[in-house]
Amino acid sequence: MEKDPFLFHYYLQISNKNVPIPEKTVEKIFDTLKLLFVSKINREIFESQCFQGVPEECNGLRSLCWKILLDYLPEKPCKWKESLEASRKQYENYINAYVIPRINAGNNPQKKEQTSGFRSGRSQSEATNKSNIEETKTSDKKAEGNVKSNKSSQKQKSVFFDDHPLSTANDSQWNSFFKDQKLWEDIIKDTKRTRSTTEFFRGYTDYPLEKLYTQEFVLEKTYEKETHIDVISRILFVYGKLNPSVGYVQGMNEVLAPIYYCFYNDLNPIFVGRAEADAFHCFTKLMKEIQNGFMKKLDNTEGGIQTRVKTLNETLKKIDKQLWTHLEKYKVNPQFYSLKWLMLLLAQEFSIDDLLKVWDRLLAHPKKLEYINYLCLSMIENAREALIKADDFAAIMLTLQKDVTEDLDKIFSTGYRLYKQYAKPEEIAQHIVLQE
After folding, report:
1. Residue at 340 is within a domain
2. Structural domains of the chain, count
């Protein structure tokens, strides 16, 4: 284990006698590492271990576990190096295919002689971009469709200034430019407010992907340094470009934030400076599981957010009829409080450090969208006494916003108890065992 390039960072910490880590915690860390020092990870046992919570005393261990839980790292550790190299190269290709062209266009889209892609003929920059796009095509089918569309557009209109700025045609480069601008504006409007009380997100990065990207990407300003908000915005922009059917929806920034925060603070040399690419891929994988909640057209379908809210409310009625009746009496519509909980996986309800502990359990559970219901119900039950005493709508809502996240251990234990008691037998992950 001490010779494993991935695990050595963690092994070194528990081997250092000068680092005051409790003996029981050291044992838990070592037990987790043993599950990874194998030819193939036993998924069920590993999930069960992570469900108990990943020890935060070991820097970077949570980051590694999340990458595995989100299927970013394969179950065969011998493939980790190759997989990471390919994924990071893929993200670099996305930057070259989607971000760099927008930077070039945004610098001054009307200067035909200075901006590649907006004048007659092909410059060296265009040729480079075309090469990058072709490379992207081989690594991702989503990018392939977008790149082919862009290539076709260039063939139809090689002279950008003949393309009317007000054109709404699909092959209009002006239309594409303004859509990108709108996407970026929607993203930055939200990312500026991401975790506003957490100093980390207001700070600068030590490991920017490339300084040029941020300096010219935000057209109104020139930064001497790159902020974490810049990186989060860029990840969401690339995601929006790759997933036009979903696009960007308010709240995605809050889902991405804990992933990026967790990965950025991992000091394992293999992951240092790579948080952007790694966070992008893990965010994308998580979004595949929860994206229906962000798509309005699917609100009332199975897996849609309104259906999920309804299911949560029906379960509350089943487990606590008195409290449910009390909320109904004062017309507290369940979507007023639970829609955001379910849609964002509780990302806005806890401090960042507590949220990481919540997500250890959530990401480790094979049925995340079912299990989160019971965490939410546990939060409501956690404030039951205060809710019953509240005798008007405003007091109830204030309680649901302020008092439901206290006593994290109780939330975990109550949530699992409710899950075992009320979840459908086929939904229960039998291998998940909570040690109370």
Report:
1. yes
2. 3
